[in-house]
Amino acid sequence: MPTRYTDAQLQALMEALYQRYSYDFRDYTLPSQRRRLNHAIERFRCAHLDALQELVLGDPAAFGELLQILTVPVTQMFRDPAFFRALREQVVPVLKTYPSPTIWVAGCCTGEEALSLAIVLHEEGLLERSRIYATDINPQALATAASGVYPLHRLAEYGDNYVAAGGMGQLSEYYTVEHATVRFQQRLLDKINFSDHSLATDSVFVETQLICCRNVLIYFNKTLQERALGLFHESLCHRGFLGLGSKESVQFTRFASDFEPLPGPEKLYRKRAPSRAASYYAGRQGFARNET
After folding, report:
1. Using CA atoms, how far apart are residues 177 and 182, in angstroms rounded to an integer?
2. CA distance 198 to 108
């Protein structure tokens, strides 16, 4: 079992990682960080947290391995199918009124959700005039996403999700099988721009009509959640849409009054008129973190 360490030691490690590599995990939730650091201590066979810190600060390759643990690379195609069905029914009809809809998938991991959205847009006749921006801080996950290649054994579950999400055909129409993997069609990948972006340190880069950031905010503390929501509010056009994970909400944040929930249990919201809170956050250049 990993040795005990204090929250102060954990936070000192996150500060050191930020100063050394510019990856900012300082406002991620402590319980989540602790679970993943305990796993990392065991993975690297370190006696204690200080030994892990010495290793990863001195060895960029070791930090690359730690990054895979800290960034929680877990996702699937059409995850929570009811969410995608609600997108088809409540959001897509509005997206069709725009000449060139732009979608941002924040925290895209290995790309399955961005591909799912591309398939929905294709089936709704929107993909050719749309652009999807899919961002993450994990370069290894982004490389997988850009390749469009996934293990074959996952496709049975993905296919079930696709049907439950209101798919209009068969998921197999969108990929080819190559030994133990599948490769999704290039026509889908060509409409997705996979790139590096940090919700903790970077600013808005495009105006959007829909943002999906699902099962990401649950790993942020309140400060970072509000920073991310501020970015989303600034990026979304007038009356744009925001999709969150099933355990996430804008409620009890500074932006609670800036988004109205759509009908139904899915965490889909629509942007209201600008508020004082949004103006405050937008006025901070780059939404910079307060440093003492």
Report:
1. 4
2. 11
For helices 60-70 and 7-21, the axis angle rounded to 10 degrees is 120
- 186: tokens are 């290039």
Return the SS3 of 11. Answer: helix
Strand, helix or coil for residue 149: strand
How far apart are the C-alpha atoms of 185 and 193, rounded to whole Å? Answer: 15
Judge residue 217's burial from the number of C-beta atoms within 10 Å of its C-beta, 0-12 exposed, 13-18 middle, 19 or more buried: buried
- pTM for this model (two decimals): 0.90
Do 233 and 199 contact (CB within 8 A), yes or no?
no
Q: Which residue has the tokens 């997988």?
A: 144
Task: Name every residue whose Cβ is closer than 8 Å to that of residue 176 and which is 6 or more positions away in sequence.
Answer: 182, 183, 185
What backbone phi and psi angles, to 5 degrees, belong to 215? 60, 40
CA end-to-end span of the chain: 35
The length of the chain is 292
Q: Measuring CA to CA, how many Å separate 1 from each of 35, 37, 168?
A: 12, 12, 49
**SS3 for 136?**
strand
DSSP 220: B
What mean pLDDT is predicted for residues 76-81?
A: 94
Query: pLDDT-derived band of residue 289, with 50, 70 and 90 as boundaries?
Result: very low
Q: Across-strand partners of 236?
A: 208
The C-alpha atoms of residue 208 and residue 189 are separated, in whole angstroms, by: 19
For the sheet containing 149-151, what is the strand order?
149-151, 181-184, 175-178
Residue-level pLDDT at 277? 53
Average pLDDT over residues 237-260: 94
CA-CA distances (angstroms) from residue 46 to 13, 15, 43, 233, 287?
14, 20, 8, 42, 36
What is the 3-state composition of the chain as percent helix, strand, coil, each rounded to the nearest 5? 50, 15, 35
